[in-house]
Amino acid sequence: MTDSDNLLTDSQIKTTCPYCGVGCGVSAKVENNQIIAVSGDQQHPANLGKLCVKGAALDKTMGSQGRLLHPSIEGQTVSWETAIETVADRLNTIREEHGPGAIAFYLSGQLLTEDYYVANKLAKGFIGTGHVDTNSRLCMSSAVAGYKRAFGADAVPCNYEDLEQCDLLVLTGSNAAWTHPVLYRRIAAAKEKNPAMKVVVIDPRRTATCDLADLHLAIAPGSDAFVFNGLLRYLKQN
Ligand code: SF4
């Protein structure tokens, strides 16, 4: 592939918003290798042409303004060699003084598999610390364990249409109005069309999502397991 193959030609390209798990389809207008405007992809099944304010501003965040373009130590621009040597020296000093277990890596959940492998290799293989994790575990490991035990596989068991067509939707600890705005609007539109649909929000906080709730269960923090165990018991008994 040559450099010119990488250039985006003047056109409309289809892509996906990277910000949240709704996964909205985006149509991007490209001129002179720059994305100059974005709009919701009308054909995309997740958002059907809609975007929230974050997705709608994607073109404003594509430039390099305000980004760190060069290595910098205490505010001074330095060469990559100096930056890498400085980090290596400081890590070595910590390891010599306190042992490898004194060093921990907390990685982004947005890393690609290959990046994640290299970071693990550096931490475990070269520095010798086992303290490596990503926010992916914080976000998803409890859900993965739940899916596997309940359904036998790590896969979300419903789709967006199910949420629109259900009779009862229970949102637990989710402020979807802020965190998954386009999906929240879909649920709100479905509820408007079908007033018999009930929404329950279980959350100690009164969030914007509660505006849609027929019932807001403001339980005490840490008591969610009691609620679900109670519901299971009720289901068994009835
Ligand atoms: S809801 Fe907003 S942030 Fe999430 S994918 Fe869609 S446009 Fe992006």
Structure report:
- The protein has 238 residues and is α/β, with parallel strands linked by helices.
- The chain folds into 3 domains: 9-61, 2-Layer Sandwich (Phosphorylase Kinase, domain 1), CATH 3.30.200; 72-135, no CATH class; 158-237, 3-Layer(aba) Sandwich (Dimethylsulfoxide Reductase, domain 2).
- It contains 9 helices and 10 strands.
- The strands form 4 sheets. A 3-stranded antiparallel β-sheet has the order 1-2-3, with no helix packed on it. Strands 8-9-10 form a 3-stranded parallel β-sheet, with no helix packed on it.
- Strand 6 (105-107), helix 4 and strand 7 (132-134) form a beta-alpha-beta unit.
- Mean pLDDT is 91; it is low at 1-7.
- Iron/sulfur cluster binds at residues 17, 19-20, 22-24, 47, 51-52, 54-55, 180-182.
Give the topology, please.
Layout: H1 3-6, E1 11-16, E2 25-31, E3 34-40, H2 53-56, E4 72-73, E5 76-77, H3 80-98, E6 105-107, H4 113-127, E7 132-134, H5 135-151, H6 160-165, E8 168-172, H7 176-179, H8 181-193, E9 198-202, E10 215-217, H9 224-237
Parallel strand pairs: 6-7, 8-9, 9-10
Antiparallel strand pairs: 1-2, 2-3, 4-5
Bound molecules: iron/sulfur cluster (SF4).
Iron/sulfur cluster binds near residues 22, 51 and 52.
